[in-house]
Each structure stands twice: as structure tokens, then as C-alpha cells.
């Protein structure tokens, strides 16, 4: 039986990925960590792990039933987790809509047998990996904002030493009438 490595996430609208990559290059020295490619920048809502096609179909059906309002995401926070070696961008105050959406997807995933981390959900966009040594974080004078009006299911593919994410399906979030 085939299994794919899947996760639900929010992708970034153009031209934000390129803007973030330029800003990152100005803010962090090369030795700080391995930069995530612009096309791979995303905010994970629920990590599913290796999932059979049958289980994935069930999770896609459940995702399609989610009724959730669109929300605005403010990227105005950054941090460093030395243990997993991650430098990230996030929000000082996560919107309720984001937390509710992630909570729903993670609960559906857990009920479907996809192990969910017991750690609380901390919404973030990974900018650098392998950042295990101390890193000077940029001054908090940055702020990007975008409207989140859909979420997606991605497959993580690894070949020729590179990770690439393929969007399999997207679902809209409701705008206020
Ligand atoms: P990270 O960026 O903090 O590493 C695809 O791997 C996405 O799923 C990444 O954004 C990753 O978060 C997230 N993720 C969450 N739990 C994971 C796990 N146990 N293994 C790999 N990725 C995980």
C-alpha cells in the first residue's frame, strides 16, 4: 500500500515569499542555518505523517466540511528554537480563526490515527533549518500582513537531496457577507 507524507498548511501569497527571502538574506548571516527555499515557505496547520491513500481521502472529506471564516495574518514576530534548529516567523497574537482551523484539523487528524504532537500549537513559518547555534534575531521592526482565504493539503517529496512540497488540494475559508 502506498503512503505519502502529508500536512495541512497555509501557503504564502505572491510576492511575499520573495520579499521574505530578501529580508532573511539581509538579517541572517549564511552560517546561521540552511535557508528554506521561497517556494517551500508555509505555515503548517497539522502535520499528518505518512498517510495511506484511503486515510488521506477520509481526511480530505473531513477538511471539506470545515466551515471557517477567513482571517488576516500579521507576521510580526520571530524566534529561534535551538533544539530542532529552527528560526521562524510568526505572529505576536495569533488570530482566533487560525487557532480554530488548526485545532479542527489536528483533532480530525488525531481521530484518524495520525499522531499529533502533545506540544501546544505555535503557528510559525520556518525560515532557517539546522540553526542549532545561537542566532541574533532581527529587531522587531518588521511587519507583513496577508489575508488567509484558503488552506491546503501538501505532500512532502524528497528527491536528489531536496525537499519539495506539492499542493494536492485547497479549501476556501468564508469571507464575511
Ligand atoms: P517545521 O517547519 O517546524 O519543521 C512539513 O514537514 C511541515 O510539517 C514543516 O513545516 C514541519 O514543521 C511540520 N511538522 C510538524 N511536525 C512534524 C514532524 N513530526 N516531522 C516533520 N515535519 C513536521
UniProtKB/TrEMBL annotation:
A motif (HXTX 1) lies at residues 42-45. One of its GO terms (molecular function) is RNA 2',3'-cyclic 3'-phosphodiesterase activity. It comes from the Bacteria. It catalyses: a 3'-end 2',3'-cyclophospho-ribonucleotide-RNA + H2O = a 3'-end 2'-phospho-ribonucleotide-RNA + H(+). The keyword Chloroplast does not apply. The active site is at 42 (proton donor), 124 (proton acceptor). It is an enzyme of class 3 (hydrolase). Keywords: Hydrolase. SUPFAM superfamilies: LigT-like. A motif (HXTX 2) lies at residues 124-127. The keyword Hydrolase applies. Its EC number is 3.1.4.58. InterPro entries: Cyclic_Pdiesterase (IPR009097), RNA_CPDase (IPR004175). Belongs to the 2H phosphoesterase superfamily. ThpR family. Hydrolyzes RNA 2',3'-cyclic phosphodiester to an RNA 2'-phosphomonoester. NCBIfam families: 2_5_ligase, PRK15124.1. This is RNA 2',3'-cyclic phosphodiesterase.
Amino acid at each position: 500500500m502506498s503512503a505519502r507524507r502529508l500536512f495541512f498548511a497555509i501557503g504564502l501569497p505572491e510576492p511575499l515569499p520573495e520579499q521574505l527571502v530578501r529580508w532573511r538574506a539581509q538579517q541572517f548571516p549564511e552560517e546561521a542555518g540552511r535557508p528554506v527555499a521561497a517556494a517551500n515557505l508555509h505555515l503548517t496547520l497539522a502535520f499528518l505523517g505518512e498517510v495511506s491513500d484511503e486515510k488521506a481521502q477520509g481526511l480530505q472529506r473531513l477538511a471539506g466540511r470545515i466551515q471557517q471564516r477567513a482571517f488576516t495574518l500579521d507576521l510580526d514576530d520571530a524566534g529561534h528554537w535551538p533544539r530542532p534548529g529552527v528560526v521562524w516567523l510568526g505572529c505576536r497574537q495569533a488570530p482566533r480563526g487560525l487557532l480554530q482551523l488548526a485545532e479542527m484539523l489536528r483533532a480530525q487528524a488525531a481521530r484518524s490515527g495520525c499522531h499529533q504532537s502533545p506540544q501546544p500549537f505555535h503557528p510559525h513559518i520556518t525560515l532557517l533549518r539546522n540553526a542549532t547555534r545561537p542566532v541574533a534575531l532581527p529587531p522587531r521592526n518588521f511587519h507583513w500582513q496577508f489575508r488567509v482565504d484558503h488552506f491546503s493539503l501538501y505532500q512532502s517529496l524528497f528527491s536528489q537531496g531536496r525537499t519539495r512540497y506539492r499542493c494536492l488540494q485547497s479549501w476556501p475559508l468564508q469571507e464575511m457577507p
